[in-house]
Write a structure and sequence with these properties.
By secondary structure, the protein is α/β, with parallel strands linked by helices. The chain folds into two domains: 68 residues, Double Stranded RNA Binding Domain, CATH 3.30.160; 92 residues, Winged helix-like DNA-binding domain superfamily/Winged helix DNA-binding domain (Arc Repressor Mutant, subunit A, Orthogonal Bundle). The chain has six helices and six strands. The strands form two sheets. A four-stranded mixed sheet has the order 3-2-1-4, with helices on both faces. A two-stranded parallel sheet has the order 5-6. A hairpin with a 2-residue loop joins strand 2 and strand 3. Helix 4 packs across helix 5.
C-alpha cells in the first residue's frame, strides 16, 4: 500500500498531489504550514508508505488543473478520497457544491453544511482540507469580504478567485453577445 505523490507547479504556487487506491487524496500547497499535519493524517489513516511517482489519477489531476488555470475548466471529475472526521467530510462535501466563481462566508458555509452555530468548527474543517482547488476552500471568505487565511497564502487565494471571477465575466459577456441575456 502506497500513496503516490507528484509535485505540480501551478501559477498560484507549488502543489503536492497524492493518490491512494485510484483516488486523489491530496492536492496541498507545499508551503502549507499544516501540510505535515495533513499528510500525517493521511498516512495514519492509510497505513501506507509514500513514493514519488505518477499514475493515471495524478496525470488526470494535472491535466484538469492545467485546464482550470488556462480558464477552460470550471468543474473537476476526479475521484476523491477524504481522510477526516464525519464533520470534516460533511464540510468538504458542502464545499464541492459551491459553484465556480462564487464565494461564501464561513457563516454561510456553516448554514449550508447544516451546522449554523458551528462557524469556528467549520473554519477549522475548511483549513484541514487536503484537496485544495478541487475542493474549493478558496471560495470561503470572511463576512467582511476580506480574504482571510489560506493554506497556499493570501496571494494564491487572490489568484484563484480572480481567475474564477474573470471566467464568470467572460461567460456573461459571451451570453450578452449572443443576446441570450
Amino acid at each position: 500500500m502506497k500513496i503516490e505523490v507528484q509535485y505540480y507547479p501551478s501559477p498560484a504556487g507549488n502543489l503536492v498531489l497524492g493518490s491512494f487506491n485510484n483516488k486523489l487524496c491530496l492536492c496541498d500547497w507545499d508551503i502549507e504550514p499544516h501540510h505535515n499535519r495533513i499528510f500525517q493524517r493521511i498516512q495514519k489513516s492509510t497505513q501506507a508508505t509514500t513514493e514519488e511517482g505518477c499514475n493515471e489519477i495524478i496525470e488526470k489531476a494535472i491535466a484538469q488543473l492545467d485546464e482550470y488555470f488556462a480558464g477552460n475548466r470550471e468543474e473537476f471529475d476526479i475521484p476523491l478520497l477524504f481522510f477526516g472526521t464525519d464533520f470534516q467530510k460533511n464540510v468538504w462535501n458542502t464545499l464541492l457544491k459551491i459553484p465556480y466563481g462564487m464565494t461564501l462566508s464561513y457563516t454561510e458555509l456553516a448554514q449550508k453544511a447544516g451546522t449554523p452555530k458551528a462557524v469556528r468548527a467549520i473554519a477549522n474543517a475548511n483549513g484541514a482540507n487536503a484537496i485544495s482547488i478541487l475542493v474549493p476552500c478558496h471560495r470561503i471568505i470572511a463576512s467582511n469580504h476580506k480574504l482571510g487565511g489560506y493554506g497556499g497564502g493570501i496571494e494564491a487565494k487572490r489568484i484563484l478567485l480572480e481567475l474564477e471571477e474573470k471566467g464568470q465575466r467572460e461567460k456573461i459577456l459571451a451570453l450578452v453577445n449572443q443576446k441570450v441575456l
